Amino acid sequence: MSESNAVLIGKKPVMNYVLACITLFHGGAKEVSIKARGRSIGRAVDVAEVVRRKFLPDVKVKKIGIGTDQVEAREEGSQPTNVSTVEITLER
Amino acid sequence: MSESNAVLIGKKPVMNYVLACITLFHGGAKEVSIKARGRSIGRAVDVAEVVRRKFLPDVKVKKIGIGTDQVEAREEGSQPTNVSTVEITLER
User: Fold this and answer.
1) pLDDT, tens digit (0-9, with 9 covering 90-100), for B6-60
2) Which residue in B38, B40, B46 is closest to A84 by CB distance?
3) By the number of CB atoms within 10 A of the CB, which of A6, A47, A54, B1 ranks highest?
4) Chain B nearest-CA residue for A53
């Protein structure tokens, strides 16, 4: 899948990311990948559900994957920490 | 799938739910379903990742589903709200 069709979920309101997804689909994308980690994971699910149920009923969830990223510690000498990740692939 | 092999994720520490999953697998379960909604969704992913990576490497993610529940409004007369849900099925 092309990485350019990825929407990275951060701390903005859900609707911002919903709009990003819709814009990609309207631009001709067949697949859009919603990626999040840590505390944004719940928001990624919200985005996928709103896109699918409210705006683009022909869009389906193709695949959902979970994983773990290792994040460098902010302070020197401390251990890297693990953060969970999710990737939800929507397909039209 | 038998509903008795479900672990419902709430607001307790991740390790509580990890232990619940491990106990079910040790009790002979072939599948354990981790369910969460709203703000607990991120924690559900954490639980699945910790079970799989730290404790039971032979456990795989079989399926992940997302959905939306309608929740009754707390105050009379107000609209019901939607909450996202996730179900992660682990298989050994």
Assistant:
1) 999 999 999 999 999 999 999 999 999 999 999 999 999 999 999 999 999 999 9
2) B46
3) A47
4) B68
Mark yes or no for CB contact A45/B84 under 8 Å: yes
Q: Is the pTM of this model over 0.95?
A: no
Substitution target in B43, B59, B66, B85 with the highest count of A β-carbons within 10 Å is B66
Which amino acid is residue B29, in one-letter code?
Answer: A
- For B86, what's the count of Cα atoms within 13 Å in the CB-facing half-sphere? 31
Q: Do A64 and B68 touch (CB under 8 A)?
A: no
- Tell whether the torsion through CA atoms of B18, B67, B65 and A37 is positive or negative: negative
The two beta strands, A81-91 and A31-37, are antiparallel
| Cα distance between residue A68 and residue A70, in whole Å | 7
- Which residues are B6's β-sheet partners? B33
Three-class secondary structure assignment of chain B: CCHHHEEECCCCCHHHHHHHHHHHHHCCCCEEEEEEEHHHHHHHHHHHHHHHHHHCCCCEEEEEEEEEEEECCCCCCCCCEEEEEEEEEEEC
